[in-house]
Amino acid sequence: MNKVRTFTSTGMKLIHHPDVVRRIKTDRRASPISLQIAPTSKCNLRCDFCSNPKRQSHESLDFGEIITLMHKLKKRGLRTVEWTGGGDPTMYTQINAVIDAAALLGLEQGFITNGILLKDNLSEASLKALKWIRVSVNALEYVDKLDLPKFEGTLGFSYVNNDRTTQEVMFRIHEHVRRYRPKYVRIVTNCLATDEEQAVNNRILGDQVAQMGDPYFYQPKVFGRSKSCWWCYIKPFVLHDGFVYPCSSVVLNSDADGKFNEKYRWTTIDELPGKYEEIMIPFDSDSCDHCVFKEQNDLVDTILFPRMENFV
Q: What CATH number does residue 98 fall under?
């Protein structure tokens, strides 16, 4: 099993949704497959590598707006919701209520968190409603251990290699892997590094992680610049400020200034459902120099504008 293609969002999973591909090709209209929601800017950690450190720390989405959005997008084909940061979603005061609402709509759900408040703040019903949870074990750079709840879905760990990485931290991670037996442990480099640093990190750290064996895997980060950005239609990202961004990686762009910069706003929560009734128009990606969805955008571009497609 290829863990990168299975457990990350940068694979070619769009091909498993032929109805969406067909609508794009014939009608030039999209359907949302997955919705990412960062419900709150509140967080109980201040990670050195945080890509959103200059955010307002008091923002939270309105409960009613989230429910209305999920209802409207479900009617337009939405399959899944990912609760993410951030912020850490465990600090959203109505997190159990929104998870319950998504479950009632029949939406599959994933959850990304640092894990510190997971056991205290998520109900048993919420845990049962989640298909997967990914815990950022960088929390072990700040706390000695994580007390994670029993979980029947797919549990995964993620770790960002950074200046706080030490043998002691790695030992703690290994101990938690033995205790909780996650399906995978994804290790990545600090995405705030320069392109040159990233290339070196991909080579060196990739070799190191390969020697660690299962369940560890390394996800290389290769940034590009898409000719046209279409991914906002397939997997829109709703931030705690009430705006929708084309993806969660716009915060990594060179001119983002440590936050989800206003120039990368695509639309609002209220206006998002209407985007699926209109002809697709690409988001202006000229400034997106740290795009991690270039291959996906190129795929959608070829669906919309096929060129000698019969010569496979």
A: 3.20.20.70
pTM of the model: 0.94
Instruction: Assess if residue 158 is contained within a domain.
Output: yes
In a domain, 210, yes or no: yes
Q: Is residue 18 part of a domain?
A: no
**Structural domain boundaries, residue 137:** 3-8+31-304
In total, how many domains does the chain have?
1
State the average pLDDT for the chain: 92
For residues 133-162, give the mean pLDDT.
96
What SS3 string covers the chain?
Answer: CCHHHHHCCCCCHHHHCHHHHHHHHHHCCCCCCEEEECCECCCCCCCCCCCCCCCCCCCECCHHHHHHHHHHHHHCCCCEEEECCCCCHHHCCCHHHHHHHHHHCCCEEEEEECCCCHHHHCCHHHHHHCCEEEEEHHHHHCCCCCCCCCCCCEEEEEEEECCCCCHHHHHHHHHHHHHHCCCEEEEEECCCCCHHHHHHHHHHHHHHHHCCCCCEEECCCCCECCCCECHHHHCCEECCCCEEECCHHHHHCCCCCCCCCHHHCCEECCCCHHHHHCCCCCECCCCCCCECCHHHHHHHHHHHCCCCCCCC
- Does residue 87 belong to any structural domain of this protein? yes
